Amino acid sequence: MTGKKLDNMVSARMGNLPILSWKVKLVLCIWGFLVAQSLSAFTPTDNYLIDCGASKNTTVEGQIFGADSYSSSLLSTSQDILASIQNANVPSDLYLTARIFTQSSSYSFQIMQQGRHWVRLYFYPVPHGSYDLKSAIFSVTTNQFVLLHNFSINTDANNSLYLFKEYLINVTSDSLTLTFAPTGNSLAFINAIEVVSVPDELMANQPGTLSPSAPFVGLSGYALETAYRINVGGKLVTPTNDTLGRTWVPDQSYLTSSGTAKSVSVLASSITYTATVTSEIAPNSVYATADEMANANVSNPNFNITWMFSVDPDFSYFVRMHFCDIVSLSLQQLIFNVYINSQTAIGNLDLSTKTLSLSTPYYTDFVVNASSGSNNISVSVGPSNLPNVNPNAILNGLEILKMNNDAGSLDGLYSVDGVIPGASKRSSKVGPIVGSVVGFAALLGLLATIYYLFCNPKSKSKYSHPAWLPLPLYGGNSHSLGSKVSATSHKSSSRSYVSSAPTNLGRYFSIAEIQQATNKFDETLLLGVGGFGKVYQGQLEDGTQVAVKRGNPRSEQGLTEFQTEIEMLSKLRHRHLVSLIGYCDEHSEMILVYEYMANGTLRSHLYGSELPPLPWKQRLEVCIGAARGLHYLHTGAAQGIIHRDVKTTNILLDENFVAKVADFGLSKTGPTLDQTHVSTAVKGSFGYLDPEYFRRQQLTEKSDVYSFGVVLLEVLCARPALNPVLPREQVNIAEWAMLWQKKGMLEKIIDPHLVGTINPGSLKKLGETAEKCLEEQGIDRPAMGDVLWNLEYAFQLQETAMQNDPDENSTNHIADLPLRYPEPEPFDTSVIGRGVGGSDDDLEDATTSAVFSQLVNPRGR
Fold first, then answer.
1. Is position 645 annotated as part of the catalytic site?
2. Same domain, yes or no, for 590 and 612?
3. How far apart are CA 413 and CA 391, in angstroms?
């Protein structure tokens, strides 16, 4: 081969690098190859492979798992209970034996190299003559982290009982202890354990975020649990073919639309690793396959490839995306956009500038939350909007790992010390000091409480109310919500006199009353399922229809929401707010009882169901009712209340289609008179989230106004706020509708059922109102009272049009009209103690028709 030919070949691989002699380029290539090879030859310093309960070592895929009976120095247990089975439908011999624990026991591993370690756990309920492992309930913890809490084996979708759990733990001491603690009188078990060190380069400490104003502080203090590891466009990759023993599964079942993607592949040997991206990041069989846009050769493609993953919304997630340009013939041909939860994660990603050559791996990391309201994380790639760019996009691999919460848990709300009392003392030398300080503080608090309850004369006042005590986290039967129920009432399965008495937080229901009302939570009475739990239709003894929302104890979600909902709704009574009748926290339950809303959610009457679509006039009435409820929240008290999760599923309709705002679990008290905002972590639902609040984490009433603007567009267009399967410019209804609004052609995208039925003036007014609600800056948005007035005006224009054809130009005078709306109703604290027996008639606002009658002659207002 001549020097010139070799020079051309190397130039094609090196892209736009400065022109060097072919000899220098060859040396650079060889050097890079040798560096990559040296870095990829990783041998773990710590490599514990344990076959639990086995009587001899087991060889699996070329690796030897030692029997834990030979490793007494690792195991600390008071009993030696083993179980085994000869034949079982399991993927590995590691599941054929198990060690059983009837009390808290642990494995301790000496760590030679501090840093990240795989902790892999294998579970299968091996049959045993005396112990039923299928009914085992237990927790698993490390020195600092809760891996599993009140865990039990459940049959999966394939009717299998085996389970594999993989964690990535940053070990910062010279030992790692895994503790298995049975819950109550239950038992614990484990089939196999891996504790294996990984290269430091595997995890960068500073991933990106989707919120630039809130940079992530770093990964080093977090434990991670593998949720998904996907080989996009390829086949199953087993641990044998991964230098770090990982499993990569195909992506087809996670694609939201299989028709958008086309699998492509090259020889794995053609992948060129670099000094910064080695085979430890991902094997070449992952980078050698990809999904690209299915019809990337069309002149104007306008779709994304989207993968959707179900996650626990109470946790943050580490997302790693793997890219390798195996589709281009030359550099700078592939530029595309990357999205997470329909937000732009990387705009106009040009792999050529990242890798400087083709078939060279690149990866990027982000920390994200679930797409609120859907309990999902979506990842999408789509074409760039830059001119003269080939419309295509690819993804080669994807990893999603759960991150521990503030309690140091990957499963629930408890810390290690809460799950295994005293466990934290084993892992820190400062434990005794901290414990002493905390104990002293607790003692002072106890003395202060005793003084307040028994010595302070003011505490005995007949006007005092029961204190709000911390709600137990699914433990104990104490009434933390100030209930007056005696201890004896808990023991009775029948309705007690005390339980029916209302408290300052609404009526307290016993669990027996709840079960009777719902026919023991009959699934035929199920109304819906949300993040908090299931909602059932029920009927009280007096015939009152109710909706019963039952918290899900398995996931331990909703404690904060449970408290907030009761606190907020116990203070509120309004015709357009869903009324809380009472609650139950008996037998570790978290149950809320509401008035029954016969016609369900507003969304169900717009799309996604078989219900007939609402006419335009009725949709306006619903919007007006919801606006009234929000206006009352914002202005009914000195500080007001910000709902923080306004959306069409949180607007419910009663039997007369009267709209009522629901779900106050995320609500916050508004700013005081000397404040402009409330600083708080961002919560809400993507698609409805105020962009200013998202960027600055500063919450105001105008955040609800933005969300309500999205609701108005949903009502008009009858489609979701976010729909990732639509063309890119249509995914976000707010952005899409405002494009048409600014063109003055909003009628082009309205619900087909409304075509020809909306008065142009009414449509124009609603479009203007929605546009104002969706202003980028909160200061430019109207107050909820102004939104309410404009909706009433839009309704009047529609109603008048049914009698005679109004002059559309009359809307030109709207800005000149005085904004008048009903005065906000004050918070009626007198209803707090009345419970369900109180009358709300004195609190209801004027009927819709009465208010609208004020607008018959709008110019005369």
1. yes
2. no
3. 46
Please, are residues 660 and 651 in contact by the beta-carbon 8 Å criterion?
yes
Which amino acid is residue 207, in one-letter code?
P
Helix orientation angle between 616-635 and 701-717, rounded to the nearest 10 degrees? 170
Going by pLDDT thresholds of 50, 70 and 90, the confidence category of residue 681 is: low
Q: How many CA atoms lie within 13 A of 588 on its CB side?
A: 9
DSSP assigned state of 838: S
Give me the catalytic one of 417, 645, 690, 751. Answer: 645
Beta bridge partners of 168: 118, 224
What pTM, to 2 d.p., does this model score?
A: 0.51
- C-alpha span between 72 and 571 (Å, rounded): 60
Give the count of domains, the chain.
Answer: 5
Tokens of 224: 């991670």
Tally of CB atoms within 10 A around 789:
25
Residues 678 and 794 in one domain: yes
**pLDDT of 750-801, one tens digit each?**
999 999 999 999 999 999 999 999 999 999 999 999 999 999 999 999 988 7
Residue 182, φ and ψ in degrees, nearest 5: -60, 150
Strand pairing report for 138-141 and 146-151: antiparallel
Max Cα distance, the chain (Å):
102
Classify the phi-psi angles of 113: left when phi > 0, otherwise alpha if psi is within -120 to 50, otherwise beta. Answer: beta
Q: Is 245 helix (H, G, I), strand (E, B) or coil?
A: coil
**How does pLDDT run across 36-66, given as a tens digit for each residue?**
443 445 789 999 999 999 989 999 988 999 9
Distance CA 565, CA 664 (A): 5
Q: Which residue segment(s) compose the domain that 335 sits in?
A: 224-403
Query: Rounded to 5 degrees, what are φ and ψ at 346?
Result: -140, 120
Same domain, 715 and 617: yes
Range of lowest pLDDT (414-423, 767-776, 789-798, 846-855)? 846-855
**Residue 104 near residue 90, CB atoms below 8 Å:** no
**Residues facing 140 on adjacent strands:** 148, 180
Question: Is the confidence at residue 247, as pLDDT, over 70?
Answer: yes
The one-letter code for the residue type at 820 is R
CATH number for 93: 2.60.120.430
